[in-house]
Amino acid sequence: MRPNILSFLSVSAFLLAVFSSFISFASSAKLQALPLPSYVGKGCSPNDPKLNECVVRTGAPAIKKIAQGDPKYRIPKLDPLTIPQIKIRQGTRQVGLSLELNNLQMYGLKDVDFRKARLDLNKNHCEWDFFLKTMTMIGKYNVSGQVLVLPITGEGDANVTVTGVTFTFIYNYTLEKRANGLEYVKVTDYKMPFQVTDMKIKLDNLFNGDRLLGGNMNQFLNENWQEIMKELGPAMGDALGEIFKQTLTSMADLVPFKNIFPKD
Questions:
Q1: 3-state secondary structure at position 253
Q2: Alphabetically, which GO biological process terms does the record hold (predicted)?
């Protein structure tokens, strides 16, 4: 029988924190018409037969700068990225686990490799492919449940490191014409498929600091990382997707479409 795995991401606090960092600027941004940041360049012509390649060529070098934050374009610092909470609820024949990760600092976004882009400007649809060699989350944890016949308890420091990370930001948009007569991109929906090739998890102070039991439990969790990742992966994808959407929205709210894709 396949494991019955139930989990959920406590995104309400996360989304509120992200949204509040952007929304305070929204009303003042409505009539602004800024050029693209200098570290992005002049943009790509919509008539370029190699438009996809142009988007990657101009966007890839800008990621490290964007991850540092840019107040002029309403972009907060993204590396490290704060995630208030992730919860995992796992129930199988062998494992009944409730794991809560709190006040996570996610490191690695500044090293994202922007690999491919697929744009259809006629259909207002874009897809961006990314790769990240390593992403690390450091924070606090609280765990309870049972593994095999052994109850598991603990709280303390947590380190979750994933490698071989691939994700795609897929979104649709409309063009919103404003009072200044210019059109701006407005994201209407998005998703972020998220996969990794490996994960290492280290939970300190399991079983009230018993090193033998704690070491064995960490080993068990790492040997079964794929089951945990089935729940953690979508949660991380949701968090990253929201950040990408808000970052794009923040810049697109200030830079009109004609400055992003200037015609020849």
A1: coil
A2: circadian rhythm
